[in-house]
Amino acid sequence: MQEIRSLAVIGAGAWGTALAKHLAEKGLEIRLWAYEREVVDSINLTHENRVFLPSVPLPRALTATTSLTEAIEGRDGILFVVPSHVTRQVLRNLAACLSRPIPFISATKGIEEDSSKLMTQIMDEVLPESMEQYVMALSGPSFASELSAGKPTAVCLAGRDAQLVARFQTALMTPALRVYADGDLIGLQLGGALKNVMALAAGVVDGLELGHNARAALITRGLAEIVRLGMAMGADPRTFYGLSGVGDLVLTCTGSLSRNHTVGVRLGQGESLDAILGGMQAVAEGVRTARAALGLARRHQVEMPITQEINAVLFEG
Asked: Under a CB-based contact definition with an 8 Å cutoff, are residues 250 and 141 in contact?
């Protein structure tokens, strides 16, 4: 198997920057694409992403660009880490730059709001048909700041081609980051997206000071909802009891670094959604995903009462 030596990381938010840092420190040649010129200048001139991952020194070998063509030129693979609501547009722009099929990993945890499609389903629509077997997804319990600090992290990588998954599993793995191979693209992405919705609900429980018993019950029933929808969509239920299911759900519903949990806490304390989101630099994916998840629940005729109630809190006053 050919060794992976270089990657493009598309998206320089906290998670994209943390992954780029991790892989550059491993010795891979990494080019990081950012939409924002100030992010690119910050990374290239000060070796720090002052906008999305401040106070974390980045390797000097890590370079950033605002050009998608430059980012992917000569790379062995693409790691795609942009917010779900701009995924389709960035993919369209990327597709125009592709001169050949290239391995493509989605590390975005979300569902498209209008279509209720998973990220790899959008990729199948937008990217050339020859790319279908090259599409993979990465998910699991992973705060960007902890991976950046070299703290132990474990995630899952899923794809349609087991040999390709194995190649990239080796490329991404380090003593600090353990990568498990998987074949369930739907389950892995659903777990990664829906846990953000449950984290909002868990945050509301904490904001209302309803106690640890209530939060534990909510997490457990939230998992039941995720499994029900996943099975209706053809996912393997066992996926939801792994890292990209229970692992990510527990982390995001209880961790103080969780953006979605923080939004939920502030909602529970009586703040308005507009006021909360207006003061945030980073994206809380759960807000958009909540609507998309409810759309999926209705389409597949699956009962998801927590998802329904968090939508009522977010959008119906």
From this structure: yes
Question: pLDDT at position 225, please?
Answer: 97
The span from the CA of 229 to the CA of 304, in Å, is: 8
Residue 209 has pLDDT above 80, yes or no: yes
User: Which among 221, 314, 229 has a CA at the least distance from the CA of 267?
Assistant: 314
Hunting for tokens 């609900």 — which residue is that? 201
Catalytic residues: 195
Mean pLDDT within 86-112: 96
Tokens linked to 235: 């996912």
User: Is residue 255 predicted with pLDDT exceeding 90?
Assistant: no
3-state secondary structure the chain: CCCCCEEEEECCCHHHHHHHHHHHHHCCEEEEECCCHHHHHHHHHHCCECCCECCCCCCCCCEEECCHHHHHCCCCCEEECCCHHHHHHHHHHHHCCCCCCCCEEECCCCECCCCCCEHHHHHHHHCCHHHHHHEEEEECCCCHHHHHCCCCEEEEEEECCHHHHHHHHHHHCCCCEEEEEECCHHHHHHHHHHHHHHHHHHHHHHHCCCCHHHHHHHHHHHHHHHHHHHHHCCCCHHHHHCHHHHHHHHHHHHCCCCHHHHHHHHHHCCCCHHHHHHCCCCCCHHHHHHHHHHHHHHHCCCCCHHHHHHHHHHHCC
| Least confident segment among 88-102, 204-218, 251-265, 271-285 | 271-285
